[in-house]
Design brief:
CATH topology: Rossmann fold
Low-confidence stretches: none
Mean pLDDT: 96
Structural class: alpha/beta
CATH architecture: 3-Layer(aba) Sandwich
Number of strands: 4
Number of domains: 1
Order of helices and strands: EHHEHHEHHE
Largest sheet: 4 strands, parallel
Oligomer: single chain
Shape: globular
């Protein structure tokens, strides 16, 4: 199984071990570059920012962990998802549309605690 981590999934896993069975058994753990930006922004505001950065770097060095970049194919999926949300009158945060797009592109389960991802039936979501 392949999974894509949302920002809150990584944070919840780091802080409380939430999602650990899923993360520890996944064949591929995919982290969108967008998620890395959100995490690192949070690190800059935190007292333990440097320590959090070290932990993130260690996590990213695991063989099963890959960073997902946005490319042209991602942009097409993004446009489709954003159009769908607009037509349905269900806006969600921009970064979450990009994260969803990368999950669809990778054919992976999205791991997140955010309920607004439920507005996108095109996105397979992990359930604890």
């Amino acid at each position: 199984m392949r999974i894509v981590l949302d920002t809150n999934a990584y944070s919840d896993w780091r802080r409380h071990g939430r999602w650990n069975p899923l993360i520890s058994t996944a064949e591929d753990v995919l982290v969108p570059g967008i998620v890395l930006g959100e995490l690192r922004y949070g690190f800059r505001k935190a007292a333990l920012g440097a320590e959090n950065e070290v932990k993130l770097s260690r996590f990213l060095s695991h063989a099963r962990v890959q960073v997902l970049p946005v490319d042209e194919a991602t942009s097409r999926i993004y446009a489709d998802l954003k159009h769908y949300l607009h037509a349905a009158g269900k806006p969600i945060p921009e970064n979450d549309i990009w994260i969803s797009s990368l999950a669809v592109q990778a054919g992976a389960l999205l791991v997140s605690a955010d309920a607004h991802f439920d507005f996108l039936p095109q996105v397979a979501k992990a359930v604890e």
